[in-house]
Amino acid sequence: MNKFVEIFLGVLTALGGFVDIGELVFTAQAGAVFEYSLLWVIPLATVGIIVYSEMCGRIAAVAKRPVFTVIKDRLGDRPAFVVWLASTLVNVATCAAELGAIAYLIKLLTGFGGPWVAFGGAAVIGVLIWVLPFKWIERVFGFAGLAMIIFLVAAIGAHPDWSAVGHGLVPQLPQVSTSRDLILFFYFVAGILSSVMMPYEVYFYSSGGIEEGWTRKDVPMNRGISIVGMSLGSLVAMAILVLGATIFAPLGIKPDTVGTPALLTGSVYGRIGIIIGLIGMITAVAGAAVETALAGAYNFAQYFGFKWGRSKPARETPWFDGAWIAMLAIGALIPALGADPTVIVELSVMAAVACLPFTYLPILLAARDKRLMGKDVNGPVSDALGWIYFVLICIAAVAAPVLLVMTGMGSY
């Protein structure tokens, strides 16, 4: 029973951190612009994040090595420094987008505030990180993230064309009239792939496993959390795209703000749907802000060799604690100075693609190293999937900056 409870709570954690501002922006826009034809990208990317989350969790449980230590071991100090710098910039930008979105969503919900509310959101998140034990940090935001289920319920209640939904799960090209529309389609493919497989997720996940003291006996639990938690999060992301295709596309609505997805639940359930949708979005985005801030601090401490972990007394981890506090402070400052969170997230998601190969290759190499992993080394299925997805993210990493420029940051 205790093991079942641990898996259940872990699934909630994975669900709470899966749908962040990146999925909200890209999936709602994808449904509005291309209807159901991009739906297949979400499960495709979800299998990838499951594969690599399971690997990095297994490495943490068996070898006690978090992702950035693995990156440093496999790539060497200088290349790892470049990866650390790039991932830190992406984490800061992502954290800024999350905090800016919180401020915007709170204003929509209450009518109060402006971009400076990002500092209030950062302060509340910082206090929770400081006072709560690590397990409760995960659980609080995991339970809060359950409010996002409203999008899944609304997608069913909107009565979409289920045959079109089923067809959208098959990889395809859209029926478009211009080459620019096709380029925009591939921009969304890269954006959704990156938003689902954002590197901060594995940084946080593997370090969290070490924080919780995972051992070899927790390998099956890690597998269950990775598969079920990420799959549930994927269903919510798919529901947002389906709602965008069902409600926004026929009306010609192009969602260009972070609050627009709340109209999707409102279209089905009225005012109460909008309120629950906004609350769900705020909690999901806040959970992602926690993960990005802590992921940035984990990477900093692991690269430079400082003690780290919220499970350790603060007096032992001053550099680690200073790093996540700085992440939240800088993240709040950027939207407070007037940066649009939608623009920030599009840039951060597309920039994150460049970090993916250098994050996921070391994980794959470590997970298939029998000297390191012993009997828990990759099996043939994990190995094959790992290489397939590594090739896919390499293609996306090359294409993303080109698509970003060619589409004018996805303008439509």
User: For the CA atoms, what is the radius of gyration?
Assistant: 20 Å
How many helices in DSSP terms? Answer: 17
* Helix share bin: over 70%
**Main β-sheet description:** none
Distance between the termini: 51 Å
Gross morphology is globular
CATH architecture: Up-down Bundle
Overall tally of domains: 1
> Could you tell me the number of beta strands?
0
What is the H-and-E element order?
A: HHHHHHHHHHHHHHHHH
The CATH homology group name = Amino acid/polyamine transporter I
List the uncertain runs. none
The first-level CATH class name: Mainly Alpha
* Mean pLDDT score: 89
Supply the helix-strand structural class.
mainly alpha
Strand portion:
under 5%
Q: Remind me, CATH topology?
A: Amino acid/polyamine transporter I
Could you characterize the architecture of this molecule?
The chain is an all-alpha fold and 412 residues long. The chain has a single domain (2-406), classed as Amino acid/polyamine transporter I (Up-down Bundle). It has 17 helices and no strands. The chain has helices at residues 2-18, 21-34, 41-63, 67-75, 77-110, 117-131, 134-144, 149-157, 162-168, 179-196, 199-211, 219-251, 262-304, 318-336, 341-367, 370-373, 380-406. The longest helix has 43 residues, at 262-304. The protein starts with a helix and ends in a 6-residue tail after the last helix.
